[in-house]
Amino acid sequence: MTERILLIEDDAALGAQIVLHLGEAGFEVTWVKDGDEAARADVASFALVLLDLMLPGTYGLDLLKRFRARSDVPVLIVSARDHTADKVRGLRLGADDYVTKPFWPEELLARVQARLRRPTITRSDRRRVGPVTLDLDARTVETDQGPVTLTPVELSILEVLTRRPNAAVTRMSLVEEALGRDADPTSRSLDVHVSRLRSKLGEAGACIETVWGIGYRFCPTPTESVG
Questions:
Q1: Model-level pTM?
Q2: Domains by residue range for the chain, with CATH
């Protein structure tokens, strides 16, 4: 069965070149040239996404966050932005690889084939971490005391923290994924959201621990005061 690839690229010459080479390699490529159109795409129906960052309409990293909220489809960023900070930000937000323009078509093809050879880790719709259960499809949360109503930002923070229980998550990562790439990681806004989240979770709120100088972590069995 032919594997389908979604190409999100506004450069006409480069896009046509990618479509040609991937098509010759046996892939079926759907080419989208606008970020807003890409935001409406059913990314889960594709085997892989090639994503440019500087797009008309929705910005590439904002697209990546949307894709990650609803699918584990592999995403390879293809961008002329070659700063280390851009690469780190893209990988932290869930990209599987980062290819810097210009590149040889053979290199891109090799990266695509290599990624598709690796199995995709599919997220479970329901995630149970200690006393908290998240339904990522329904966007609902329950604790041992019952259902909890969270804002989208609070739910995003909890989702990020529970991906890797007991692991510290930096303030920058939480801010970028929950508040947006333009938010200030040094502001108190994140702390306010975390405080409200802890309060809404009740007893389970003690699982969200402060890692001083770094950020926060979710411990299924709390080990310290959350103050």
A1: 0.56
A2: 4-117 (3.40.50.2300), 126-218 (1.10.10.10)
DSSP assignment of 59-91 equals -HHHHHHHHHHH----EEEEES---HHHHHHHH
Q: Are residues 6 and 49 in contact, defined by beta-carbon separation less than 8 angstroms?
A: yes
What pLDDT does residue 22 have?
95
Residue-wise pLDDT for 61-94, tens only, equals: 999 988 887 777 889 999 998 888 888 888 878 7
What residue type is 183 in one-letter code?
A
173-205: pLDDT as tens digits = 888 777 765 556 566 888 999 999 999 999 999
The distance from CA 61 to its chain's CA centroid, rounded to whole angstroms, is: 9
Element (H, E) at 146: strand 146-148
In the chain, what is the greatest distance between 2 CA atoms, to the nearest angstrom? Answer: 59
Neighbouring C-beta atoms of residue 44, cutoff 10 Å: 10
The amino acid at residue 110 is A
Rg (CA), the chain: 19
- For 93-187, where are the alpha helices, taking DSSP H only? 105-117, 152-163, 171-174
The helix (run of H) or strand (run of E) holding residue 198 is helix 189-201
